[in-house]
Design a protein that fits this description.
- The chain has a seven-stranded mixed β-sheet with strand order 2-8-7-6-5-3-4, with helices on both faces.
- Helices cover 39% and strands 14% of the residues.
- By secondary structure, it is of the alpha/beta class.
- Helix 7 links the parallel strand 5 and strand 6.
- Bound molecules: pyridoxal-5'-phosphate.
């Protein structure tokens, strides 16, 4: 047995990736699998973005860049952030990262330690709990309930704070539920956090552009009481269908920026230079691909919610953002893991069990609608069969 740091045994994994591997195995065996398990847009990266990367490569952009990213990109991020949230950010507070996930990692490397408590969304993106556990901190789940449209209750959140709380992680629009936290709850939270001036907040806003029904994304950075202790995570993976490019960013408050930058220097050095140029084009170039993708997601969401709710024993709220629905599903007392397994093995329909996103996800499954409408139509038929058998 290798003598490893014991905390390594606490790291979890992303169930969606193991489901993807199993789906691929079934496909190799000739099965016609519909994969609604994975959280990546089924659209190609827009051509103007690809061309910008190719041009950068041809122009000789092959070296290291400053660790926090090239200034032009950091300025483009600040400009885009101002346009979308009305919040002015100093480009010097931005670190460009290889995907948004690195921002979660660096933040937890700074705030997590044995003895610390960290509040995180449950159900929520799997990496939060995994990395909290790895730092030896105590994970404190914040329930996001279906009856609240999968938002949290600010009073409940404030009641979870103790002297040991170091960080609160929030995510809106959310993975896995598509929930969007209403403005009034954010405002109440910001006010309540005035009493806890040492607590930082990691606001994961990676789905901020994928928001429906005239809901406007409100960044936690826009609340004056907390803006100096909010770390924002965002990136290109979802908005610009760029998951494989690995491009994200963190906005780090001045007080902690140098430490985050040191983590970046010691870990990823800098993001691939051509990808950074692609990132500039994505933010500054034409946005019609993003708009078309969001319109398509909206159609799919409406189709799914309506048809899921027509199936007995399935109950689905209409999510306000991201590209997931999180229906409650009942079948012969099966757990969500058993339901999801059975759907994959017997119906060749890949979903993710709600329980893999936290204990409050039990009883639900996550369906990603980053898949063509015809696949969604077929999955409704398969779910109908499954429930009625
Ligand atoms: C809520 C949330 N945050 C962060 C990420 C990380 O995205 P990436 O590292 O591809 O930028 C994801 C990806 O699934 C996500 O769903």
């Amino acid at each position: 047995m290798v003598d490893l740091n014991k905390l390594i045994f606490k790291i979890g994994s992303d169930t969606a990736f193991s489901i993807l591997a199993r789906s691929n195995e079934l496909i190799k065996r000739g099965k016609d699998v519909i994969n609604l398990g994975i959280g990546q847009p089924d659209f190609p990266t827009p051509p103007n973005i690809i061309e910008a990367a190719v041009k950068a490569l041809k122009d000789g952009q092959h070296g290291y860049s400053p660790s926090a990213g090239i200034l032009e990109l950091r300025e483009a991020i600040a400009e885009d952030f101002l346009k979308r949230t009305d919040v002015q950010i100093n480009p010097e507070n931005i670190i460009v990262t290889p995907g948004g996930k690195a921002v979660i990692f660096y933040t937890l490397m700074m705030f997590g330690h044995p003895g610390a408590e960290i509040i995180f969304p449950d159900p929520g993106f799997i990496a939060y709990k995994s990395m909290i556990d790895y730092t030896g901190s105590k994970p404190v789940p914040l329930p996001h309930r279906m009856e609240n449209g999968f938002s949290f209750d600010a009073d409940e959140l404030l009641s979870l704070i103790t002297k040991k709380t170091k960080l609160i992680i929030l995510n809106s629009p959310a993975n896995p539920t598509g929930g969007v936290v209403p403005y009034k709850e954010l405002k109440k939270l910001a006010k309540g956090l005035e009493n806890f001036p040492d607590i930082f907040i990691l606001s994961d806003e990676i789905y901020s552009r994928i928001i429906f029904d005239n809901n406007k994304h409100v960044s936690l950075k826009s609340f004056s009481q907390i803006k100096d202790r909010v770390i924002v995570l965002d990136g290109w993976s979802k908005t610009f269908a760029m998951t494989g490019w690995r491009l994200g960013y963190g906005i780090f408050p001045k007080k902690i920026f140098d430490y985050a930058e040191k983590l970046a220097i010691n870990c990823h050095s800098c993001v691939n230079l051509a990808t950074q140029f692609a990132g500039i084009e994505a933010l500054k170039g034409k946005q019609d691909h993003v708009e078309n993708m969001i319109n398509e997601f909206l159609k799919r969401r409406d189709f799914l919610v309506e048809h899921l709710n027509s199936i007995p024993n399935i109950d689905c709220v209409k999510p306000k953002g991201a590209f997931y629905v999180f229906p409650k599903i009942k079948k012969d007392n099966l757990s969500s893991k058993e339901i999801s397994n059975s759907l994959l093995e017997n119906k060749f329909l890949a979903t993710v069990p709600g329980s893999s996103f936290g204990k409050n996800g039990e009883g639900f499954i996550r369906i990603s609608y980053a898949s063509k409408l015809e696949n969604l139509k077929r999955s409704i038929e398969l779910l109908k069969e499954f429930i009625s058998e």
